[in-house]
Amino acid sequence: SQQGEEDPQALSIQEGENATMNCSYKTSINNLQWYRQNSGRGLVHLILIRSNEREKHSGRLRVTLDTSKKSSSLLITASRAADTASYFCATDAWAAGNKLTFGGGTRVLVKP
Amino acid sequence: GAGVSQSPSNKVTEKGKDVELRCDPISGHTALYWYRQSLGQGLEFLIYFQGNSAPDKSGLPSDRFSAERTGGSVSTLTIQRTQQEDSAVYLCASSLGIDRGAFFGQGTRLTVV
Lengths: 112, 113
Hints:
The structure holds 2 protein chains of 2 kinds. Chain A is an all-beta fold. In chain A, 0% of the residues lie in helices and 57% in strands.
């Protein structure tokens, strides 16, 4: 079973707008990560946030983590056509043997 | 190498045949993962190797699936007596540990006809 579930499943925005997607998970985690996938092949790591952190930034990316609600959000500011991709959250949890498990992803389309 | 390498990139096999998929992780990475992804879907966890610990095989869908990691480096995923439902992209990833990001290979697209 998947630990993380992303919402929405798909998102369509205009270039320059912000894109926000959410991830919910079921059990207490060690870390939560976000990945991007283009063209259905290899994933690229974007950002990792630890369970004792609440917010993290990397360039145009902002990630928040709310462990009380077991949820995280990824915000992409000033989106570009090149941001068109699928975005996945992934968690590792001590109770699940520390393996990295992924959600179903959010498909983002940025229209020029 | 510079990244995670998987071979072959594509594999077409007949139903009932055995296949072997190979993953060369980044040198020094102690953690290695195998996932399966069907078109438009998320990543289904298959197996996780961490250092010298016993692998976590909890995601393998049946006893037709097995994997090994030799010398803490190269890994091979074997699917015996392939079925059409095994068709998917098989992704391998490696990392330095659970608090580090994972690096993915480009995957092997398996088609069972």
